[in-house]
Design brief:
Shape: globular
Structural class: alpha/beta
Distance between the termini: 32 Å
Number of strands: 10
Helix content: 25-40%
């Protein structure tokens, strides 16, 4: 697992995490660590357990074993509603904007943690800098936006809580390639300019790994490969299974 040279403890430290649904093991002994300001990508096929991993971190699903520590403090005993207040923001798969609320109201909903309320004016300005269209559409109902614009709202809502960790689940899902590229550019910008730690789940493997410092490959609920993005992109199994490249 990646560790800072200075011996800084991980911001997020997952050890041997297991999650089961009705006797089926969605996660089996998954370990992952993320340092402050680090960008980690988790890739794998559908049903590999990627979304379940995010749900376990957020407290939405019960765990069957293992541990999760946030800044050295056990996280699993915390209620799901408390975890956003610790600085963990989750941008869920499928965007899940509040369709009958305006764009501005959606962003305000993300600012309910104390840090979000205290930094709201600054954060809103930052969101509008990243996504100017959201300032233009501030009074428009979120449900009337395009898919790409809704994804911008979802990311903005995550940023509104002034997090230390931004978890993004399939942000390119259902988007045209050009729109997905814009979303990836903004994610890279957030990481580079704001120093925000990012945990990304994504099926556009090449683009996702190139953005990140370190990656994990999940298959059938287990970590089968991990390493810096150059190592993963050079791995024959990753190239064959996820990039469609067959060695000649």
């Amino acid at each position: 697992m990646p560790e800072a040279a200075s011996g800084t403890p991980p911001m997020l430290d997952i050890r041997d995490l297991s999650v089961a649904y009705g006797g089926l093991h969605a996660l089996q002994g998954v370990s992952l660590s993320l340092m402050p300001g680090q960008f980690i990508t988790v890739v794998g096929p559908n049903g590999a357990g990627k979304t379940t991993l995010f749900k376990a971190i957020c407290g939405v699903v019960p765990t069957a074993g293992g541990s999760v520590a946030w800044q050295g403090t056990p996280l699993l005993a915390r209620r799901a509603a408390e975890r956003a207040h610790l600085g963990i923001a989750h941008v869920p798969e499928g965007r899940q904007v509040f369709r009958t609320l305006t764009v501005h109201e959606n962003l305000e909903m993300g600012a309910y943690p104390r840090a979000g309320r205290e930094k709201w004016a600054h954060t809103l300005d930052r969101i509008h800098t990243l996504f100017p269209i959201l300032a233009e559409r501030a009074t428009q109902l979120a449900g009337t936006l395009s898919g790409g614009e809704q994804q911008m709202v979802a990311i903005g809502r995550g940023l509104a809580c002034a997090p230390r960790l931004l978890m993004l689940d399939e942000p390119s899902m259902g988007l045209a390639p050009a729109v997905a590229e814009t979303i990836f550019d903004r994610i890279a910008q957030i990481h580079k300019e704001d120093g925000l730690a990012i945990l990304l789940v994504e099926q556009r493997v090449a683009e996702a790994l190139e953005l990140s410092d370190y990656g994990y490959v999940l298959e059938t609920g287990r970590v089968v490969l991990k390493g810096p993005y150059q190592t993963l992109l050079a791995d024959d199994s990753v190239r064959r299974s996820y990039l469609g490249i067959t060695e000649q």
